[in-house]
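A note from the maintainers: we've had questions about how concatenated examples are separated. There is no special marker in the raw files; a new sequence line simply starts the next protein. For clarity in this README we add a label.
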Amino acid sequence: MSAEAADPGAPLRRRSRPRIDLRRLGRVALRGPVSRDRLPDAIGHVAEAHRAHHPDADLTILRRAYVLAESSHRGQMRKSGEPYITHPLAVTLILAELGAETTTLTASLLHDTVEDTEVTLDQVKEQFGDEVCYLVDGVTKLEKVDYGAAAEPETFRKMLVATGNDVRVMSIKLADRLHNMRTLGVMRPEKQARIAKVTRDVLIPLAERLGVQALKTELEDLVFAILHPEEYEHTRALIAAAAGPDAPLDTIADNVRGTLRDAGISAEVLIRPRHFVSVHRVRGKRGELRGTDFGRLLVLVTEDADCYAVLGELHTCFTPVISEFKDFIAAPKFNLYQSLHTAVVGPGGAVAEILIRTHRMHKVAEAGVVALGNPYAQDPAAPQTEPSDERADPTRPGWLSRLLDWQESATDPDTFWTTLRADLAQDREITVFRTDGGTLGLPAGASCVDAAYAQYGDRAHTSIGARVNGRLATLSTVLSDGDTVQLLLAQDTASGPSPDWLDHARTPAARIAITGWLTDHPDEAKPTPSTMTSVDPGGPGPAGPAGPEREAQVIAPARTRSGPRATGVVVDGPDAPVRLAGCCTPVPPDELTGFVVRGGTVTVHRRECPAVAAMQEIGRAPVGARWADADGRESEAGCRVTLVAESFGRPRLLADLTEAIATAEAAIVSATVEPPSEQRVRHTYTLQLPDAAGLPALMRAMREVAGVYDVSRAQHPAPAG
């Protein structure tokens, strides 16, 4: 919670309520608690915003929460100079403006008390109840994790589990990060960059997945300002130059209002400015910006049917751009988003993008899960139950449930971290139908392999094919939104997946399950069904029942596992093909061990890879393996590693980094310094260390060089100079 933030410039968009004056609130906070019969002045903004969404809300609990938070934090100051109480106040205001319910706001006011003051969870539970205690505890657990580069995998595993148990925990965390990003300017530039990168890589994708667009877009702009200051300023100048009373969107908006009024459709037509990152992306796609590219029209109506009525009128009275039409009402996005998207040609050939949605859809589009209220609110007439650490969230999106499932299988932190980032990068989801009437939510580009593991878990190891829309299909078939899929399982329950399945698996659950089975059964690679020559006539079809119990019989040629010879590795024994294991992706200076698999190939793993223990448990003998030098000879001593240092440019930076390397007794084999970009410099060093154990100390020493904000190990060694 100590991260501070700085507004990168002018407000990103016009707000209906002026931003809190933190110094004024600080002075009010220092006056201490007030009488029991009124709200403290310091949370007047919060009360006003909360009542705008919940007119009948009881504010008594907010007053009590503020009094406890203010008295507990009294005397604590932020690095920016304000009393610390201004931080939970600002975080709570962000959530109140999004429409969060009273329990979430109460927990937000108290979210730092257990971590930073004498207040205990038992006190919170006694004074505010189980739900508030549960949320405060969840946020506190997130604050205890280390955000350093080495700790990232476990940090975000904890964050993911906490989010899955109650999405309101992540709502508070996102609002907390937004306020810290707004005031990040008091931090050193290198720390600003480090925090901004974590925000960009994980928190912004999570905000997108949770549908909290209002937080996501402002976080994007703040990160943009920190990591790409020159492009940010250029975009700011473009937006400022385009502002004016005669903007092209104003004319089109007036025409749209007139069209809908003449059609008798009651609608509110607004101009919705694009945020900075959105303008930057449009400019990158189109090159030169048009006057209508700086915003979109937003049409708000009352009923779902009115959305389609508006669409019909616009497409009748204007020339539509058909390629821009998308219906996210009939097929909502995975993050709850619903809207109709279209574009029309206005006067003079100007093209305007238009969003059409109901007022409720708009609230959910802006606030996502925050707008859904308390997912655990109990019926007053029902028996009261104690909250547990594991409880089903009725509002939990399908993607989050899948993440929670596969993270339990990803025991290796590196596998978890790589897979998490890849999964969060998926920005589109499809829905396919099962023949039993159920549905499966999958990322765009998913195949029948992914559908099999999504439906059957480890039972999918026996998959042999599928029917897609009633027709036989291979497991590699890519599915489309709305397809009906029937998975066909083999009668032999001992069979397993083919290595080729990894080429077609897009979901983490499928890839982790396949990799785990192949690691445990290195000599039992399954034949890949490439040609279907016989299908059991009793299998599922138009006249037969659906289900895996009536399996298709597939005859296919056998295939064996093989891989390219790994360069830079020497193994004991006769000359044989060598490949690096995909489960642990070893790189220098990792200690290695290998195992002979089918065809005589030696698969090389990191010694700490879980697959090594699994191999030894089934009696497989390890093969010695070592890294070799550039000429293919076995390395005589030490280890070679490639490190990438990212830093801000300054005089003597190269000399100071070289000195830090020399002090660690590492020899520089080659070095590359990329041309500075936006005052940032990337250095790549291939180093020879006398002992692999000295690598962590070397990386710490390089990070401590002034101006260096990140040092990481390259995934593949650079060629020797």
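[label: protein 2]
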Amino acid sequence: MFDTLLIANRGEIACRVAATARRLGIRTVAVYSDADANARHVAACDVAVHIGGPEPRASYLRADAILQAARDTGAQAIHPGYGFLSENEAFAQAATDAGIAFVGPPASAIAAMGSKSAAKSLMEKAGVPLVPGYHGDNQDPQFLKTQADAIGYPVLIKASAGGGGKGMRVVESSGAFLDALASCQREAASSFGDDRVLIERYLQKPRHIEIQVFADTQGNCVYLFERDCSVQRRHQKVIEEAPAPGMTEERRRAMGEAAVAAARAVGYVGAGTVEFIAEPDGRFYFMEMNTRLQVEHPVTEMITGHDLVEWQLRVAAGQPLPARQEDLRIEGHAIEARIYAENPEKGFLPSIGTLAYLGLPAHTAFANGDIRVDGGVRMGDTITPFYDPMIAKLIVRGADRDQARARMLQALAQTQAVGVQTNVAFLSRLMRDSAFAAADLDTGLIERQRDTLLPAPRPAGADALALASAAVLARQGLAQPGAAAQASADPWDARDGWRLGGQYRRELQWVDNGETRRVAIARHGKDWTLDAGDGPQPLLWRAQANAGGAFALRVTLGGHESAGTVALHADRAYVFTDAGSHALELYDPLAHSQDTQGEHGGGLTAPMPGKIISIAVKAGDTVEKGQPLLVMEAMKMEHTISAPADGKVAEVFYAIGDQVTEGAELVAIE
């Protein structure tokens, strides 16, 4: 086994690899960019080496800097994680040429499977069923459009070297093809340095099922069963589970053996994932092979009991696979949810900011348990525009799918973040969704269930208002009703709201989704009341201060008890309960007395930090509602800004190539 391992990645996966390496007694080396100098993965490793600026191309995509860091630190092996250089055959070959073990397949296998079009041609020759489409080298736009017209719409354009939903578009009609192609190619070039695409028939109600394969240098190859990754948004996975609901032993064996055959066809070594798309009748088609460890590998670890990173390291060190096919068993059911800093109500746009508070359920970290959290950020860390905005992966297991789903709901209720928008509430609704509960899964589930998964915000109830108000009192140091008497006999030391005459009264104005909610709190003698609009009711509370300005609270209002966590940050109270969460702004009339309306009421603002990559209008142009105005790029994804109504462009405030901050005014329309 290796003495020293360099981890050529960041965030959650770097921490994950470091955890297994530490358990095996392997010294670890982290690499980091300017933006990650204080990142969690840097602290998780024994040694850290700075490799460049915050942009991936200036750091984590710099093969030369990473290889030099390996030489300088005496690393005998490099683990690439996923993303960045993990599927770059030139990097894998350069590491091998330098005498450093690449923890992954040989460069030849990466090259064979790294191009979606080349891989499909290889699978076609091997007799693996493929979705009808064009996977050739001719990339002329008009030729590709002709191919799409012949296939029949809808079609799916996919970056040939892509992954993670980048460089991918569904096209519904011939007239929309060329614009979608151009956007795909720009995104593919930005993310992968390769703008080639392939075109496939877009299947209706398909399931995305992938097989985990593993091969060693002795010629052994096994499959560690399947994962269902059908629940997606924007072609990116949201929920993954294993085993796949409804999978028969016969189909599992057929898909597993097909995946092993695909791996053997390219002389594969290490961990790989063969992805299939399956129709409702059970027919399945080869999609691609990811020549690396997958984000969702923990669900396989949960049902098999094997540490796949340990397998990777042992195979890379020349050891045989730790288990044979007949030794592998499925036990229970596991579900993984990706906790992202994003806003589901705004098209899942990334949310940038500092994690002022982060609360997680009791869990194991990077190791199997009923509730497991694999995370790459900590409270106080910043989610930047440079990298994927994942906060953590929440993985649960149960004896069966129903128990796993119930455990996931419980864990999500205890996952709390302040400082950025998150998808936690969305994930909770998804777990409760009738189609998901019944395992009626396909890649269009989220879009089909939008009305229930993305409902209009609900107003905060009296219990949420009471919890927020009690947190404000606790922050002021007011004693809890019924608390033990303080040691001091001096009445001026009391923090129970005592006033001369025995009365204390305060009115709080909470802004809840634009509506002002008034709460009156009063103390008469030793008794407290709270009036949230239905008249004064007796109030009792207990508060325990936690890190990050949060309080664990239990409030009794009018005989009804509620419990939750309230994080106070700036002028907001973030209320988390089992029933959901609410963000309430504490309105200060004096602070808002000088508020005036902005100058550009008809302007369009940036929904997130990013770079302007295309502008379709200029001052004086007449535009129609829905017309594309400009395109922004953030986190390697393109976002089109469209006109909210008919009008005339008064001014365009930025040029192509400009970086903009969230909220910056982009275009003024009159």
